[in-house]
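Hi W., the (2R)-2,3-dihydroxypropanoic acid complex you wanted:
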Amino acid sequence: MRRQSHPLKILVTRRIPEANLALLKRHFRLDLYAHSTAIPRRLLLSRVRSADGLLCLLTERVDAELLAAAPRLKMVATFSVGLDHVDLAACTARGVPVTHTPGVLTETCADFTWALLLAAARRVVEGDRLMRSGGYAGWDPLMLLGTDVHGKTLGLIGFGRIGQAVARRALGFGMKIVYHDLYRPGRAVEKELKARHAGFRELLKVSDFVSVHTDLGPGTRHLIGRREFGLMKPSAVLINAARGPIVDEAALVAALRSGRIGGAGLDVYEREPKMAPGLAALPNAVLAPHLASASLETRSEMGRLAAQSLVDFLALGRRPLHLANPKALKRS
Ligand code: DGY
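Structure:
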């Protein structure tokens, strides 16, 4: 039997789950950059030249330069909920629809936010290091004292899907919840989650844990910096599993080092994969390598959504799910 050759080519910029590739292979020719690190920019710009569709990650900037290098490009599907690496206006102007993967990672990211919060509050990583180093000499009433989580105040900056899922878990810990967001979800949600809307400064002042769940955009870059750390309690713990540049990382290092705040749990960094000088040496910071959505189930589902949206639009001529720039379709 002759192998059917598919007319359209998809550039996939990283190794992704096998099942996602199998779905794409049923409809397209694939150009797969099957590595565990980001495709170099120059290679991306050269390989995208012959691509009809792009399945990319948050490590690839999709901007005017990339679009100019990709004359055949008809669609971009990003294997992420975040879209800060994509110039949506430029894609729309070119009539290139962009899809992302909201919804499927909400609960997984909320779980991980809690992993960071609990680890930072209860010094789990320091304890792990002590055990492995052979330094544990037996139970001691004053060893590695952390701070309680139950009954404390959790401040959520951003109260969308993930912020609300984090709040739902906080109910089990009997926490008081305050949130700050320009969009208020309505009384029913506030009541269910026992969450009170607060001004930004008030939230920083009253919270024992401040957790960031907002998008990265021009209005949120360095939203939390030296002035904001100055408003927080000296015992406060900052959690960021959203985007690194929302926090001024040099100011965070200074605040952690001086005891201006108590601790931090970070999954994202301002210049990822690099960290600000000094951060790695601070024992009161729990540091994870952008793992919030990294469960087997969720990463498979994110990949399935991204692949399916390419199949829907490019192979089946359907409107894809989770279109971030619907106006792009009106142009084509
Ligand atoms: C996203 O999807 O935007 C996350 O940062 C990775 O899961």
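The pocket of (2R)-2,3-dihydroxypropanoic acid is lined by residues 58, 80-82, 105, 292-293 (CB under 6 Å).

W.
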